[in-house]
Each structure stands twice: as C-alpha cells, then as structure tokens.
C-alpha cells in the first residue's frame, strides 16, 4: 500500500479522498489555487502546495506542475478525483512515465473511452447496444445536418470529448440545427478544448441508468449495480438513487453484463461508470463510459456497504478486488441530491458569494445496525461557513445522501434533512429539491430525463409569499434582539431603557415593515404581559417566551399553544428564518421609505451572473424583436443566452466578446422600436 498520495483535485472529493487515506494510514498532499488557499481540502491534508491563480487552466489543469509537486513531496501516487485531469489520457501517461501511480484506469482505457465517437465504435464491436447516430470524424456543419435529417428529429448533438451535460443540445427541427451546433461547439471547445461532436437520435422519455464497474490488474471485473440519474436539468444530474426503481433482476443482470463487457473491451482497471439510456419499453443503449469515480458514487456505497475510494487505493496498489461478484448484494435504498449555489427561478443560473451562514443536518455514521435508533444521513462537502463560492469552479455546496430500508423512507429522510439545511449569502436549490421530493412523479417513480420540465408548474411555482406565522416569527426575532440589546446596555437598569412595551395608561402598539422581493408586508405588534400579539393581515399570532440564541442563530418560544425552534439569522437588515415550511428571507425596514418604481435603464439587459461574454449576435442600431438572442455569456463552463425583453432598437453594445462582467452589469442599451 502507498505511504503518501497527492490529491490532484479540490472540494468535497478531495476531502473525501483525504479522509479515506487517513483511515488507511496513508499520508496526503493537497494542491490548491489562489482561490482555494484556505479551503477545507487544504486543511484536510498533511501537506499543501500552491498551483497557481484561480482559473483552472492556470492551476488544477497544470499536469506538469502537479507531477513536479508529487515528486518533490515524496508522493508515490496521484489521485485525480473527478473533473479536471481525471479523464485526461496524456496526464495519466505522464504520471506513469514519471514513475508514479495514476489512481485510475490505464491511459489506453481513458483514450479508448475519451472520445464518444471512438467509444461507440468500440462498443459496437463488443456487442453493447447503441443508439442510432453518427459518430464519425466528418465535422462539416452541412454534413452533420444531413446526418441529423437522415436520423430523424429530435436529435441530440453531444460533445465527443464531453461530459457533465456540457456541450450538449437537443434539436427538434432541421432549421434549428446549425445554430445549436455552433453553440454546442463553442461550449465544448471552452470546456474540453475539443469542439468535435456526435449526433444521435434523441430517445423520448428516456431514463438515465448507469452501472458502477470495478476492475483490477488481475483480470477481475465486477458490476456494483446500478444508479438511476434520470432527474436532470440541462443534462446535469440533480438527483441520483440506487437501486433504480422498477429494475427487474433480469434487466439488472443484462445491463451489468453489458457494462462489464464494455470495461473488459478496454482492459479497464479501477472505478468506472458505464452510462445507458433506457427507453420506456425496457431497451437500453450505451451512452458513454466515465473513466473515473462519479459524483454520485455515495449512493452505491450506501446500498453495498463498500468504500469505493478504498477500493481505488487498493486496486491501484496492485491488490485484487476486495470482493467478487458473488459476495455483492443490495441492501436498502439511497438517494443523493446536489445542493448547489444556483437560482432555479432564473433558469438555474449559478450564484456566487460568501456562505455567510451554513448549518447542515446532523450527519450520522452509516450503520445498518443503528437503523431504528438513528437515520443514516451523509454529507460530503468541501466548504465551510465563511467560504466563498467563486465563479471559477462548480458551484456545489454539498452532496446530501440519505439511506433507508426502502425508497419511501429514503425520500422522507431526504425531505427532513433538506429542511435542516440552512444557507445564507447566496441563492440555493434547497427549496427546489424539497419540491422534487414531494413531486408525485418522483415519489411514484415515474422517472425520465424530462421530469423537471414536465413538472415545471409544480416545481417552479414562483416566489412564495411569507405566511402570517412567518411574519410573526420575523417580528419576534426583531423583538428578541431589541430586548437582548437593551439588557446588555450599560444603562440596562434604567426603566426608560426597557423594551417591555410598558406605557403610562396603556400598552404599546407599533408597526413593523418587512420587504420580500418587491412586496412590502406590514404587521402590527401589541405588547402584552408576558408576550406579544402580532397582527398580520386578518390573522393574529400570540408570541410568548421568546428566546434568541445569537451564537447558535436559533429563535424559540411559543406561537399560540405551539412551541417552535427555528434557525434565525440576522444579517444586516436581512432576516432569514428556517422553518419546516422552508426558508423565508425578509428585509426589516425600521422606517419604511417609498422608493418609487425602479426603472431598468437598459431594458433589463444586465448580466444575470458573473461570467464572460463569448458571443455578440447583433450590432448597434439593429432592430430586434422580443425573444431574439442578442448575446451569449459563459459561466461555470455553461452558456447562457441573453434575449431581447421586448421589440426595440439596440442603441449601444456595452461589452464585447471576451469581456468579463460582474453580476448585474449592463450589457446592451436598448430603446423602444
């Protein structure tokens, strides 16, 4: 076994690898960019070395510098994690050439599966079923369009070197093909350095089912069962679960055998995932093979009781697989969600900023023997409170995983765990994930990759108005803070400084004003002996025994006859409450000021997130119509099209291709046409 390894990655996967290595008595070396100098993964390792500036191309993609650091630090092996250089055959070969061990498959296997086109040709020879399509080298737009026309619409354009949903477009009509192709190629070039694509039939209502495979250098290869990753947005996974709902033993065996055949065809060693598209009638087709550990590997670990990172380390050290197929079994059901810094109400645009408050549900050590006493909950995260989510890397805050004896129990536990996941400082998808858990289609296992779009009305209901109960709690937080501040003051004993509402000849009443988005909510607070009554609209809520724990950021007391204890964060004028119904954020306005109607001077054409302008599609003076694409921005390696909000004339282009812009920066000046 190794004595020291270098982890050529960041975030939660680097933390996870470091934890497993420590348990096995293996020393760890971290590498970091300037953006990650004080990150969690750096603190988790025994040594840490700077790679370079924040952009990945100047840091985490510098294979030569990573190898130099590994040799200088005395590491014997390099674990690439996932993303960055994990599927780069040149890096894997360079690691081997330097006399180090690449903890992953041989470079030849990565090369064979790295090109989706070449991989599909290889799978066809191995007898693995394929979706009809064109996987060749002719990349002429006219030729590819002709191939798409012959296949029949809808078709899927997919980056040949891609993954993670990047460089992928669904095209539903021939006249849309070339514009979609150009966008796909730009995104692929930026993300993978290669704009080659393939075109294949788009299977309607497909399920995305993947098989975890593991091979060793002794010729052994096994399937560790399947994961269902059908719930996606923008071709990126949102929920993963194992085992796949509705999977028959016969289909599991067939898919497992096909996955193992795919791995054996390239002499695979280590952890890999063979991904399939399955149609409603039960047929399945090879999509791609990810020659690395996957983000969603924890659900496989939860149902098998295995540590896949430990398996990786042992196999890379030349040991045989720790278990053979006849010893593997499925126990229970596991679900994973990716808690992202993003705004589902704005098309899942990434959100950047500081994690000003972060509280996660209590994680429990996974033990089936403890079932009944504890609820198995696992959190894999690479960030801490106070860290920043930057525009340079994937905006994932954490992976949240729950296990139960059955799927219904795992869903219920996930919903309960999400209710205790608190974030302040940026937008998250937590409320959206809770709606998914409660969605009838998901709960009923009516799964396919179009579920989110199909259930958009239920999953994207728009901004939620605060309830009378939540407004009362916000008022209670203000009152509790005022009381505690008065008690801590130097003149706390002065009766004129008391905040108990006493008045000569009566009790105090006051109004409080809270803003949620564009709406203002006014409540009336009546002070009474031992408590307060808050009038919100037609409802009255009696508050008593208010207790504010500023350190723990908790507010507790009685609301009517019901006891409550909720997360409560006061961040400047913003009050954030975390109740069983979800998060509500309100701006407390001690003196309500009328600001009038805000007018966007540039017609709403501002940057929806920090990023880079990659294409300008119009010229100054052009007459445009509502919905017409005007500019393309890129953030987190994903493209976002800026469209005209109304008919009009472009007065001025405020940015050009290549410009970096901040969130909210004006992009284009328009006037009514």
Walk me through the structure.
The protein has 5 domains: 4-103, Rossmann fold (3-Layer(aba) Sandwich), CATH 3.40.50; 132-201, 2-Layer Sandwich (Dna Ligase, domain 1); 207-459, D-amino Acid Aminotransferase, Chain A, domain 1, CATH 3.30.470.20; 468-589, 2-Layer Sandwich (Glycoprotein, Type 4 Pilin), CATH 3.30.700.40; 611-672, RNA polymerase II/Efflux pump adaptor protein, barrel-sandwich hybrid domain (OB fold (Dihydrolipoamide Acetyltransferase, E2P), Beta Barrel), CATH 2.40.50. The chain has 17 helices and 42 strands. The model is unreliable at 366-374 and 591-604 (pLDDT under 50). The chain is an alpha+beta fold and 673 residues long.
Short description:
The chain folds into five domains: 100 residues, Rossmann fold (3-Layer(aba) Sandwich), CATH 3.40.50.20; 70 residues, ATP-grasp fold, A domain (Dna Ligase, domain 1); 253 residues, ATP-grasp fold, B domain (D-amino Acid Aminotransferase, Chain A, domain 1, 2-Layer Sandwich), CATH 3.30.470.20; 122 residues, Glycoprotein, Type 4 Pilin, CATH 3.30.700; 62 residues, RNA polymerase II/Efflux pump adaptor protein, barrel-sandwich hybrid domain (OB fold (Dihydrolipoamide Acetyltransferase, E2P), Beta Barrel). It is 26% helix and 32% strand.
């Amino acid at each position: 076994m190794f004595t020291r390894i270098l982890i050529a990655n960041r975030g939660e996967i680097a933390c996870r690898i470091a934890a497993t290595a420590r348990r096995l008595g293996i020393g760890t070396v971290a590498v970091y960019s300037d953006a990650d100098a004080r990150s969690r993964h750096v603190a988790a390792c025994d040594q840490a070395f700077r790679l370079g500036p924040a952009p990945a191309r100047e840091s985490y993609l510098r294979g030569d510098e990573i190898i130099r650091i590994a040799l200088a630090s005395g590491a014997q092996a390099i674990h690439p994690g996932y993303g960055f250089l994990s599927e780069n055959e040149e890096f894997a070969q360079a690691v081997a050439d330097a006399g180090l061990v690449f903890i992953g498959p041989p470079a030849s296997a990565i090369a064979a599966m790295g090109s989706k086109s070449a991989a599909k040709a290889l799978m066809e020879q191995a007898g693995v079923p394929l979706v009809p399509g064109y996987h060749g080298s002719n990349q002429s737009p006219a030729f590819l369009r002709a191939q798409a026309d012959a296949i029949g619409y809808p078709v899927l354009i997919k980056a040949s070197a891609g993954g993670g949903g990047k460089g992928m477009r669904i095209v539903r009509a021939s006249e849309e093909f070339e514009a979609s192709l150009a966008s796909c190629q730009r995104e692929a070039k930026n993300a993978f350095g290669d704009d080659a694509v393939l075109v294949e039939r788009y299977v309607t209502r497909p399920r995305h089912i993947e098989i975890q495979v593991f091979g060793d250098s002794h010729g052994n290869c096994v399937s560790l069962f399947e994961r269902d990753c059908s719930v996606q947005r923008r071709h990126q996974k949102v929920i993963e679960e194992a085992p796949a709902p509705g999977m028959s033993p016969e289909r599991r065996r067939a898919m497992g055998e096909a996955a193992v055949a795919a791995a054996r065809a390239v002499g695979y060693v280590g952890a890999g995932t063979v991904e399939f598209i399955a149609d409603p009638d039960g047929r399945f087709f090879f999509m791609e093979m990810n020659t690395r550990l996957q983000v969603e590997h924890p659900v496989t670990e939860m149902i098998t009781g295995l540590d896949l990172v430990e398996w990786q380390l042992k196999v890379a050290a030349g040991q045989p697989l720790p278990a053979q197929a006849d010893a593997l079994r499925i126990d229970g059901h596991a679900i994973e969600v990716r808690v992202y810094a993003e705004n589902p109400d704005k098309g899942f645009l990434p959100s950047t900023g500081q994690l000003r408050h972060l509280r996660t549900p209590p994680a429990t050590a996974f033990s089936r023997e403890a079932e009944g006493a504890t609820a198995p909950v696992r959190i894999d995260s690479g960030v801490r409170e106070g860290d920043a989510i930057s525009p340079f890397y994937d905006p994932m805050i954490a992976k949240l995983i729950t296990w139960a004896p059955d799927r219904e129990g795992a869903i219920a536990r996930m919903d309960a765990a999400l209710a205790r996941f608190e974030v302040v400082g940026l937008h998250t998808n937590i409320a959206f994930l809770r709606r998914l858990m409660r969605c009838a289609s998901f709960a009923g296992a009516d799964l396919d990759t179009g579920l989110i779009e199909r259930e958009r009305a239920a999953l994207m209901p728009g901004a939620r108005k605060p309830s009378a109960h939540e407004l009362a709690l916000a008022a209670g937080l203000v009152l509790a803070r005022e009381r505690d501040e008065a008690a801590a003051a130097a003149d706390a004993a002065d009766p004129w400084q008391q905040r108990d509402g006493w008045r000569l000849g009566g009790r105090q009443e006051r109004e409080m004003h809270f803003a949620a988005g564009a709406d203002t909510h006014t409540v009336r607070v009546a002070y009474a002996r031992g408590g307060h009554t808050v009038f919100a609209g037609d409802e009255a809520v009696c508050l008593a025994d208010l207790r504010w724990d500023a350190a723990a950021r908790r507010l507790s007391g009685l609301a009517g006859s019901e006891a409550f204890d909720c997360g409560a964060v006061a961040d400047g004028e913003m009050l954030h409450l975390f109740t069983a119904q979800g998060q509500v954020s309100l701006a407390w306005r001690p003196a309500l000021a009328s600001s009038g109607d805000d007018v966007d001077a540039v017609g709403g054409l501002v940057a929806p997130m920090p990023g880079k302008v990659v294409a300008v599609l119009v010229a100054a003076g052009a007459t445009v119509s509502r919905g017409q694409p005007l500019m393309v921005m890129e953030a987190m390696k994903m493209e976002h099209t800026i469209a005209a909000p109304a008919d009009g004339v472009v007065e001025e282009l405020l940015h050009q291709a290549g410009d970096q812009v901040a969130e909210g920066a004006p992009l284009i000046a328009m006037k009514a046409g």
